[in-house]
């Protein structure tokens, strides 16, 4: 793959569903181990891979370009979040649809989909192009699988065009980021502490006298669950040690560390102009402080919020929900199932150097 193709994929991964590009296909045909079919003896069972990508037969036959795109995903995640899988197992699964794929964590499927070999995905309104209309696996957008010879016309009509390999890579990237906290096991937590000890031995010694490793693990998992980067791990652990000197409750520890990372959090979510496009909370959210995610009042508010988020993304804005510090964690729990990729910051996590631009105040909700 050319340097320009590698850079394009990196940009796509960084921007998520808003980055739209297209590349040409390769004709390599890798041979992959097969899954499915007759059940093997348990005596011969191998340890389950932490992350596995299973491919249908047509995706295996499609060539190495699909694999090249996806193989860049783990490195992109580690570079942005400071933690991630070194790679993953890729296997053919004869029980999948020919153009299907499945992402599995420790043997369990967490996401699946299909891409059309030899087609391109045109994103946008689909009234004026012919093809199979589908829902994009991420980003809550629709697209149309079109013939390759129609790509030029689709771009002239304002469509963003993606190659199947990028659709697959984008979905795998999104799924792994959402489930990354599940990969931070106790053993991984010990490895992270050992790594940080080489840079900040006294900080780690101080921290481990205040908190057991299991509690440190839970805090780091909670940060990753909301896409908070651990790249500056010594700083994260120093903030955690300071917080542990005052409070041992996991939620209090998490919120204290997040507040200490205000500049990092703001920078990760702001645009090039250092502006955060925010959705402030209205008064009805405070009345639901102790509500459960499935309650009728919560569902109503989340539905309204989803419409505002979709509208903001249609205008190429990255919305951020800002809540009072004492409500932030509760609001996040309420919306996580329906809006897992919507960042929720407390007012204490917005660095003063960044400007706030309200998208639409939720005064009616």
Note the main attributes of this structure.
Glutaredoxin; 3 domains; single chain; Helicase, Ruva Protein, domain 3; disordered N terminus; Rossmann fold; 365 residues; five-stranded mixed β-sheet
What does this protein look like?
The protein has 365 residues and is of the alpha/beta class. The protein folds into 3 domains: 3-37 and 46-179, FHIPEP family, domain 1 (Glutaredoxin); 184-260, Orthogonal Bundle (Helicase, Ruva Protein, domain 3); 271-358, Rossmann fold (3-Layer(aba) Sandwich). 44% of the residues lie in helices and 17% in strands. It has helices spanning 3-15, 57-61, 64-71, 73-81, 151-156, 164-183, 186-199, 201-210, 213-225, 233-244, 250-260, 262-269, 283-287, 296-314, 328-335; strands at residues 34-35, 51-55, 89-93, 100-105, 108-114, 119-123, 132-135, 142-147, 160-162, 275-280, 319-323, 344-346, 355-358. A 5-stranded mixed sheet has the order 1-3-2-4-5. A 4-stranded antiparallel sheet has the order 7-8-6-9. α10 (233-244) packs across α11. The model is unreliable at 1-30, 37-44 and 361-365 (pLDDT under 50).
Layout: helices, strands, pairs:
Elements: H1 3-15, E1 34-35, E2 51-55, H2 57-61, H3 64-71, H4 73-81, E3 89-93, E4 100-105, E5 108-114, E6 119-123, E7 132-135, E8 142-147, H5 151-156, E9 160-162, H6 164-183, H7 186-199, H8 201-210, H9 213-225, H10 233-244, H11 250-260, H12 262-269, E10 275-280, H13 283-287, H14 296-314, E11 319-323, H15 328-335, E12 344-346, E13 355-358
Parallel strand pairs: 1-3, 2-3, 10-11, 10-13, 11-12
Antiparallel strand pairs: 2-4, 4-5, 6-8, 6-9, 7-8
């Amino acid at each position: 793959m050319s340097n320009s193709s590698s850079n394009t994929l990196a940009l796509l991964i960084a921007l998520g569903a808003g980055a739209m590009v297209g590349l040409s296909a390769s004709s390599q045909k890798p041979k992959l181990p097969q899954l499915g079919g007759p059940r093997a003896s348990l005596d011969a069972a191998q340890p389950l891979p932490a992350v596995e990508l299973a491919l249908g037969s047509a995706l295996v036959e499609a060539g190495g370009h699909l694999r090249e795109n996806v193989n860049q995903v783990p490195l992109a995640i580690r570079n942005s979040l400071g933690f991630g899988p070194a790679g993953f197992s890729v296997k053919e699964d004869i029980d999948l649809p020919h153009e299907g794929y499945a992402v599995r964590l420790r043997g369990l499927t967490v996401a699946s989909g299909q891409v059309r070999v030899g087609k391109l995905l045109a994103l946008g309104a689909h009234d004026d192009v012919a093809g199979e209309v589908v829902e994009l696996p991420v980003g809550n957008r629709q697209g149309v699988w079109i013939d390759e010879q129609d790509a030029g016309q689709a771009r002239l009509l304002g469509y963003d065009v993606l190659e199947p390999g990028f659709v697959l890579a984008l979905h795998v990237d999104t799924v792994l980021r959402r489930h990354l906290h599940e990969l931070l096991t106790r053993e991984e937590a010990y490895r992270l502490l050992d790594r940080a000890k080489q840079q900040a031995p006294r900080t780690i010694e101080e921290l481990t006298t205040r908190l057991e490793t299991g509690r440190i693990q839970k805090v780091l998992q909670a940060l990753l669950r909301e896409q908070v980067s651990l790249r500056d791990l010594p700083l994260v652990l120093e903030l955690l040690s300071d917080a542990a000197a005052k409070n041992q409750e996991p939620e209090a520890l998490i919120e204290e560390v997040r507040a200490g990372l205000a500049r990092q959090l703001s920078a990760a979510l702001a645009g090039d102009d250092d502006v955060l496009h925010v959705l402030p909370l209205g008064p009805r959210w405070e009345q639901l402080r102790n509500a459960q995610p499935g309650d009728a009042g919560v569902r109503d508010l989340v539905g309204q919020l989803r419409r505002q988020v979709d509208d903001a993304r249609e205008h190429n804005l990255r919305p951020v929900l800002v809540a009072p510090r004492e409500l932030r964690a509760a609001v996040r729990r309420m919306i996580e199932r329906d809006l897992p990729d919507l960042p929720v910051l407390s007012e204490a996590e917005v660095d003063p150097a960044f400007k706030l631009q309200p998208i639409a105040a939720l005064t009616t909700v």
